[in-house]
Protein 1
Amino acid sequence: MSGNILEINDKNFESEVLKSDIPVLVDFWAPWCGPCRSIAPIIEELANVYLGKIKIGKCNVDDNQLVAAQYGIRSIPTLKFFKNGNIVNELVGMAPKPTLEKALNSLL
Amino acid sequence: MKPDYDVIIIGSGPAGICAGIYASRARLNTLIIEKGAIGGQIILSDCIENYPGFPEGINGYELMDKMASQAKNFGTNFESDEVISFDLSNQIKKVNLSNKIITAYSIIISTGASPKKLGTLGEDTYYGKGISFCATCDAPFYKNSVVAAVGGGDTAVQESIYLTKFAKKVYLIHRRDELRAAKILQEKAFSNEKIEFIWNSKVTQINGSSGVESITVQNLKTSNTQNLSIDGLFVWIGVSPNSSFLKNSLSLDKDGFIITNAKMETSVKGVFAAGDIRDTPLRQVSSAIGDGAIAAISAIHYIENIKK
């Protein structure tokens, strides 16, 4: 994980996502998924832009099957937006950067 | 007034990136705008077997990552944004992005195409919850599961074969009684024991609760329907053009693809189209690459004449 992206896993999901003081975007991905790798630079850029305001994390569904199963992930990339422990928005597939920005801004 | 760029390329699939390489090598100030993921829809492909130079085949993402690096090495600029509309009426063309306007002498449109939807009841509800267009992304979620695929072309057959690496059974549902896919793919599919073909049929309903649980399939000859219990549904029934943002600015064919000549010129001077977005008889990486090179050369000549 590079820069300001947080690694989200089965162990820290509750503390980092569900009990977070600020909104959280979780990018569910896997190394074998081309589109996931292709959007990674955009996610990293957004993590820098929203630093301190929205937590942005990546959850590798291969390594963290408990969380992936709990949230019924069957397509990746899937982006889930959390506020106060609840899912408030969800994007499946490759979303344009302006769409991501709009979704992030609506969390603030 | 000098525009922001010499040429703006919209879309970063094989056609757009190849155009970027040629334009940048001609020392044109070149920008590629991509609204989604760099590489276009081919990054959904696990293995491209018919693009020359890779005897073992190459993964779609890997290929496009290399192409993008190649363009960047020659100075092509990339920007992640969405084109909302154009003003093509003057020599300096305006491109309206989500929150700014940029200008160029020439535009190359290589926005490609997107997988067509089935148009079946329940489809939108279950996208990401059992319905997928990307086997490389989602097949690993279906280890030892039963899945269905729809289509009969290269993508449908190749990706169904890929699905059998994970799923225990793949129903391949096709509306005709023969496949359109390349013969070599047909041979592989017919000899694969995990694939069961359901001919002359279409999916009429997708059923489930929190995710897809079954589909209703109708035989188009007998009108008989059957219910198949499945865990996932993969849809590969062709593509539709990403041309809605063009509105009436260019001549399109009846299906919405951009009409071009052999030089990739569109109905507007200085605007070119390349790859899957144009009215081409073949939508493959190899043909998109050729289109991109020709479109770039046409744009280079066009800009040289303006600057004279």
Protein 2
Amino acid sequence: MKKSIKSKPPRQRLFVNARIIDPSQNMDQHGDVLVTRGRIEKIGKDLPRDNLHKSCKIIECRGLILAPGLVDSRVFIGEPGGEHRETIKTAGKAAASGGVTSLVMMPDTDPVIDDVALVEFVRQTALEKSKIRILPAAALSRGLRGEEMTEFGLLKDAGAVCFTDGRKTVENPQMMRRALTYSRDFDGLIMAATRDSSLGGGVMNAGFNATRMGLPGIPREAEIIPLERDMRLVGMTRGKYHASCLSTSDSVDVIKRAKDNKLNVSAGVAVANLALNETDIGSYRTFFKVSPPLRHEDDRQAMIEGIRTGAIDIICSNHDPQDVDTKRLPFAEAADGAIGLESLFAAALRLHHTDGIPLMRLLECLSTAPARRLSLPCGTLTQGAPADMILFDPDMPWIMEEDRLRSRSKNTAFEGARFQGRILKTIVAGRTVFSRDV
Amino acid sequence: MTKSAHSSLNDETKAPAFREKPFSLDHLIGIEGLQPSDITFLLDRADEMVGISRQIEKRRPTLSGRTLINLFFENSTRTQSSFEIAGKRLGMDVINMAVQTSSVKKGETLMDTAVTLNAMQPDLLVVRHNAAGAAELLAQKMGCSVINAGDGAHEHPTQALLDALTIRRSKGRIEGLTVAICGDIVHSRVARSNIHLLNAMGAQVRLIAPSTLIPGGIEELGTSTFHKMEDGLPGCDVVMMLRLQSERMSGAFIPSAREYYRYFGLTAERVALAKSDAIVMHPGPMNRGVEIASPIADGVQSVIVEQVEMGVAVRMAVMEALQLENPVDMA
């Protein structure tokens, strides 16, 4: 009975007695949700049960929160080419248990997802192997080399949801200018990493801690300079731009200024940069070596303020599976990256519990905002929308244990972390794809 | 408090569980975090070791039967010999392993080597590696004590201890002295270890270097920074020079060796700015005519040769302290 997303959605499901939070309608009310053929049909108090189809299951939500499923805008998967790190199937399982109902898969694979056949491959594999929606992002430049553009139009038609060079920053401003200009004709979204490879050649946040540990630092300017350059190019081309992961307080200011100038820009932040800071690295713990690097506590606070004020739009997991061979190395030689699909939601909830970010705003950053930015129909519970939902207990305490992880790689920065709030059910197109007995 | 209660309390504090350990560490990874009492303990013991080394019969049976492995991922003849001699003078069997490093596979080699060496049941492992944190990583995987002989730009604790011993023997104290550390601070593990040690022991540390060779945030360690030898040297009791790696001289950090020597080389005129009884130190090997002028390196104020001698004594003291924490045959 293991059904992938490809199979036909259940005919009818009724979720009763839930606290329904939908940021897309600013809705926070108690009631029921009726789902028919994978789409939201009706939301209301005490929906009538006499006209239900005979196969309809009624799901009692016990007053817990039902919200749109999470949309993760930045996920690295090893398939094709690095299946020992993560496959589309294992990423799908990990995502489902973390409440992620749609994820955007970065093109940094081997081969790079830079042509139509590979986009097709990812889409097909995802349809057959995964219970959640895995959406390919196509490379912005062929082979991620930053030299020639990929076929934006054909790739978009094949199902690519945005264009990005993944981990790589587009170094050549002319290339970025052309991509921003050309993508306008297809309403394409350019999603960019912003880390200058020469200035940002270090291995952790520059400053006292890097100095003390004898590690080369990544100055904040290594992110701010490419970001400011890109803002100029967006102003010049009027393209549609998303900075995928920011980490410094100045970056928040840059984005805010660009938005004030009516540029079509948005910004994301990895949950690690909201929940952790550079001191978590401790004694050279490589699971905390991520890109963008964990920054100073002041930067972390600024990112949280960015979420609160709306300067930052999207929270992503920046899920980047790495195996033992690339992580059990001296810090400077270890690969960047940590897995995050399974900790995204719980780690983000820390912002609600300890930093006073309203649940509505948090869910918006995790679901509605990324769905809108990527032009996906999900991230909302309006009538006719796909019934992609999560049911969660915002207060349930739990501890993250490495051997319980579903991801194929175990490089989590949250091993042993104490969390408050947990996903109990993940629903994609009306079907419960993950359920936790409590 | 009655007399009897008092005496019973005294008896209790004499019980083994309450006995003050002379030295409390399993490994020596860095100076950071060491207590001043630990440092003093090691220096006192090293002072005694100097005497042992100056006798004709140098070998002691203190650690006989135990195995010391010198694992060097970076070439260093002098440090490796110093550890080897120290180990042999304490009666240990010493094995030297120079691991050829290919640039990519270094890390794998490190972990694999750790597992392999661990299986050989060494009692002490001395490691030098070009990556910061490598000694820490090994210490987590090895069943024996690990001594860090330099890990990247992180720490080189025995160098700082031998420098401290040299200073103490020359000046009679460390507390209250003003020490200038000059040169390539940013890439120097010697500088970091020395800063931690000198701070812990109450000395004033000045750093003198071109701005490109001063790492960001270093002043948070409690040092003051100067960018001219003429500004930093007056009033110093100790002038500690650092080696400038040749690959740093080619334009990336400073334009050329001759420009460096012009502004930061230790010449007779500059030494004269420090206190008249100031000592000149260098961890070696020296670049004569780059960071230090030959007449100074060989001059009366130089204690560079004594540093090498203290190196053996300090390493003997460290090995003994780490091993006496793991007594095997107490009967």
